[in-house]
Every structure is written in structure tokens, then in C-alpha cells.
Design a protein that fits this description.
Helix 7 packs antiparallel against helix 8 (167-178). The chain has four domains: 7-99, Rossmann fold (3-Layer(aba) Sandwich); 127-194, 2-Layer Sandwich (Dna Ligase, domain 1); 199-339, D-amino Acid Aminotransferase, Chain A, domain 1 (2-Layer Sandwich); 348-442, Glycinamide Ribonucleotide Synthetase, Chain A, domain 4 (Alpha-Beta Complex), CATH 3.90.600.10. It is 27% helix and 29% strand. It has helices at residues 16-25, 59-68, 79-84, 86-92, 106-109, 111-120, 134-143, 167-178, 249-266, 313-317, 325-334, 409-420, 438-442; strands at residues 7-13, 31-38, 49-51, 73-76, 97-98, 128-131, 147-152, 161-163, 190-194, 199-207, 212-214, 219-220, 223-225, 229-232, 237-240, 273-282, 299-306, 348-356, 364-368, 370-371, 378-382, 385-388, 391-396, 398-406, 423-424, 428-429.
Length: 445
Amino acid sequence: MKLDRPIKVLVIGGGGREHALCWKLAQSPLAEAIYCTPGNGGTAKTPKVSNVNIDVMDFAQLCEFALGSAIDLVVVGPDNPLAGGIVDFLSNKGLKVFGPTKESSRLEWSKAYAKDFMSAHGIPTARYAVCNSFEMGAEIVAESPWARVVKVDGLALGKGVFVCQTDEEVLEALSHIFHKQRFGQAGEKVILEERLHGLEVSLLAFCDGRRLVPLIPSQDHKQRFSDDRGPNTGGMGAYAPAEFYGHCQADVESKVLEPIQQALEAGDLVYQGILYVGLMLTRQSCPNDNPEVPPGPYQPYVLEFNARFGDPETQAILPLMTSDLLPVLWACTEGALNKVKIEWSSLCSCCVVACAKDYPEGISSGEPIVVGALPDEVIVYHAGTKLTDGQLVTNGGRVLALTGLGSSMDLARERAYQALKAISFAGMDYRQDIGKRASHACQLG
């Protein structure tokens, strides 16, 4: 069915990604009303958008609200409800939902399954082994000097990856997972992986069950502190486009996207929604980048799949999308991506996350937030915020995401960081180097 009338949309989630989705959908003349559950302080103030206080895992209440409000399209943001089967639940009640089913989203909620999928379809990925106990993991480490990355198999809010330098660090990570049970059931199985070196790229693609349509490439900054120091987080900032992606775009299309496309056509993969492909573009000739071996051309390897829009990549990407997002999401649910056109601005974007001082271990709650005057070239997306008696206060680890736009990455970055000076809340912190490596990466050929 062609989308030819204004519709009501329900966006499930309450983070920065969901604010960005609501912000973009609200610009559509085809959006009659948008509801966000549970939403945040930013979605509460976005035109056409109303917050509804329903937990993302309360499928029954979400369904009751959607049916009672005559919702035409449900858009699922976070990973947990997808892994829990929200798409299956709502679809079975007659609702139209943008997002993959529980089985399809297994590409994200089981890293072991994703690795096996890649191996079966010839998609390049790092060497790996799977273990389900500390003892088994220690044995693999002793026999495999390449095993330097430890990944929790299940969902871990972006914090279940340990990038290690030594055997001792790998064993410490395994102890956190198996002995201290830091990740609960999500950590009952672990992937030990070869560490790759190079340039990371986040490549998102719309999927209608038949075909893939990539969005512009971006780059996330996962480590907590500047210069990629500290623990992994849900993401401290992103920029788009990642122009260095052009060095191996053809290889990504032939070695990564084409095998996924073939799996869709063969019925080996049933998928509809957004597919996030985390890539490493590497010139690695041998383990540890032996300087005595001349590097070859860039080669793509898939680090991970996500079954949803990335956060904060979405906050960097959507401001550059000049076409209407709503018909694209609708087309994905109809198997009709070939009937919509997606267009992009020539601008650059740089998104910087303002977080609580103790993030990712701690959050900020109830601290008043001051947002001063900002230029039109800067967009403020809310994540960990809420309104209390009309006052905007903190309500999470990642609090705000400021996206600067400009004709160059340097200008976009300058605007984002300048705008941060007009924002304040107690304990506010952010990385100082988001987007800084973009110009350097573009010079690498």
C-alpha cells in the first residue's frame, strides 16, 4: 500500500536516537502525529510529538495504546525490545512495525550466531573462537595468541566488548564475565576474536526483505575518553560522512553487501528494518601490523551487526538526509524500497555527546540542565533528560548530543564544540576529539 495520507506514528524508545527519529519524522507532511514511549525531555518539546509513559518492554501496554490510538506505523528504536520479540508481538496483533523480528535480530543479540552467519556466507570477519566458561576461554587464549578481543555473546548496552593488549587483560575480562557475572545471562557465552587495526566505519542500510539500500557512512567514537582511552560506551560521538570509506566502497559492496543480498534472495536471511554493519577497514598484512611488511590496499572486515539505528550515528546521519524519512520506513514494511528515492545533503555533521562525569559506570539524575541560545547550524538531541515540573533535568548517562553542521568537517566540528559552551549541568563531561581524525583519515589512500 502506498503511503498517500497523513498517518500516526509510534516511536518506541527514550534515547538520543529516538529523539533524532522523532525530529526527522516530525518534518514529514505525512506525519499527522507522533508518539514516543517513553520519550525524554527533548521529544516532549518536539512539534507533533507527544510522550507516552510506557516502558519499552511492556509489550501488552504498548499494543493496547497503539491499537487504541489508531497508530499506523510503529518504529522500534532500542535493541532490548527487538531481542524480546516486540515486532512479532505487535505484528501478530495487526500492527505495522518497522524493525526485524526476534529471530532476524539474532544478528545482534547473538554475536556467535552473527559470526557463524558471516562464515557461512563468505563475509570477511576476524578470526574467532567461542567459549562458555572461564577455563575454556583460558585454554583458547593459551593456544591462540591472536585472541585479543573479548565479546559478550548477548546484549550488553554497548559495553560488552573488551579490547585487550595482553593475555592477562583477556583473562581479566573473562573473569569479569564468568566469575563476577557482570553481564548476567548475556555473558553465558563469549567470543574471543582477533584484534584488527584500521579505520572503523558504521554503515547502516535500509532493508525491505528483498533489497538493501545503504545510508551515508559514519564513524562512531566508542571509548569514553579522548584519544580512544578508557572503557567502551554506548558511543561518545559520531561524524558523517566518513569520506575515507570511498577507499574500499567497492569491496564493501561486493564482499559484504552482496552476500547479504544473496542471503535475502535465497531465504537464508529474513530481515526487514535497518541493518547496522560495523566495519573495520584495515591494511593489516599480518598480526600486529608488522612494520616490516608493506601494507596492502584497504580491506573491509565486519566487526558486528546491529538490528537497529545506531546511537549516536543516527544523530549525525539524519540531519544530512534531505528526503522524507517516513515514506522510506513505510516502504521497508511493504517490500517497496525500489519505489522511494533517498537523497543527501552535501554538508558534513559532527555529533558530540555530553554525558555524566561517571558514565559509563554511573548516571546523572535530577540535575538542572541549562541550554542557552544556539545557532541554526546546531541541533540538540536529548537522551538522558526529562521534564520535572517544567524544568529540564538529567536522567541518564548520556544526557545530550549536539550535532553541528557545516560545509566542511572542520566547520561542523567547530560549531558543535562552540555550542557545548552554551550547555551546562552539574558533572557534565564530553570528549574533546570527536571528528578530529576525519581530515587525517581522508588523507590515507
